[in-house]
Amino acid sequence: MSKPSVIRPFLRRLLQPTEGLPGKALTAHFLRQFFEASSATEVETPIVRALAAVSAPMLVAAFWIVTLAHGLRPWSAAGIHYVFVIYAFCAMGCVTTLQWDHLFPNRMDFLILLPLPLRGRTLFRSKLFSIAVLLTLFLLAANIFGTLLMPALAGNRFLLAMASHAAAVFLAGTASALAVLALESLVIAVLPERWFRWIAPLVQTVLIAAFLTLFLRVGTVMEALPALLSGSVQGARWFPPLWFLSVYEACVGGPTNTPLVHSLAWRACLCLPLLLCLVLMMYPAAWAKRRRMGLEGARSARLHDGRFWGVFIHPTVLQAPDSRAVFHFVRQTLTRLSQYHVRLAAYAGAGLALSLALAVNVEWHNGMPRFALTSVGTQALMPLLLFWTVAGMRTAFLLPADLGARWIFRLAGLRTQRVVSTAKLVVFCACCGVIVLVVLAMETGGWHGSSIVLQAIYGTCCAVLLVDVFFFFEAHIPFTRPPLPGRSSLPMTLAIYIFGVPALVLLMVTLEHWAGDTLWRTAAACSAAIGLHIVMHWLRGLPSHPVSEDAFLDETSEEVQTLGLST
After folding, report:
1. Calpha distance 439→341 (Å, rounded)
2. Whose CA is closest to 17, among 117, 114, 129, 132?
3. In degrees rounded to 5, what are phi and psi of residue 250?
4. What is the pTM (predicted TM-score) of this model?
């Protein structure tokens, strides 16, 4: 029997998970896990909202480009093609990174399904097929509107333009998703269990920051496309988005179809089988390790910091027992549960990407990129990173953990104001860590001592006010409130992120320029921040403040009476 005849049946058996009733049921079960809502009161699931969020930008972009862009020059058209290619590449990379926890069965799945009379390969293929379906849905959502609308600019070459656009963007998105899946499998398979909980969030943060930075720098690459595709820039051959753009330009033809384009297009076509082979090699190894962890249980990290908390923190900051309980509950929940790691990694990556886009300026000289720090962008680093830190922590606090165990906090009789103050303390400690990292980065970059001290002072004031604003209406223990209907407003959230972030950065940069190195102006700015903090603390204590005195008053659960044992 020839070699291809041996490989083909093997691949057919591997990639057909819906074979038989158990396979179909398992595939439906894994797909249902992706789309299930976090609470019974939610109409839209997070995946549905994510699909809409991924598809909306390219729908708007394609509509306005088709409406306004006519008679484009070849290299201008290539720049527009690059926008869609890089969006597909970055969107699928971010989606796969954010679905990090859902790309393998959870511990409950392993404990329930493995003792059943099911073949191990049936479970494996069903999960792999469900992942393929999920990523295909996101791939279609991110690229379908551009594929349907953009060929309208091609005139009589409508079908060729549609096929070229579809080939380029779908290849780019598929390659990005496979690369992240292979990297995730490698991290899970290679890292020891005690290191995984610390290194995995760092890998997720770096991936999110890298993909968002690539997309935010789309204008820089568009400006240099003639030089990049002509071969005059060293290292351009190893920039993956150019490979898939070359597929687009090679299919469309014209002046942009340079000799280098054909070479890069072949790399795009060859990288997909290579990435698929890497996934098929690494995913089973990661699967075996996750299965072992699911059956044996993840080892709890030994906390060796008891002496530190008992000697330094408890006698000074956390003197009340309920404050200590809430503080350590929040600290250990954020440390141990990976669902919060992914959420925080997304916010940290977004903050890093926006900071790099503002602080680093890229200019082209003789076909080579030159990087330089901008003074205004560097001053915006501190408020920008602090904003995303506070916003990420607050969002993580709203994500419920094990709601069946929250009854213990109600029976303990915790004071609402003390609970909120402790939660704000945790967030402020995280902000202090960000301030220290930014100060160290500025010192490494050659900033003067007085400028670094002023940045630390302004960063501390900004952190205090951001914590006050974000937690002004909060009155519950983090991770213990179920999602309630009517508590979130998407337009208000978008308005905060779209208009609030630029306003904060502009205010802080203007304040720093006004204060300068003058001592009395710096003292006035700090006094104003302290005054605002006192006023907001006073407003929270007013009887008219909408925050309830009972952290559990507006929750409609019966776990306190039934302890989760009712039918």
Report:
1. 24
2. 129
3. -65, -35
4. 0.85
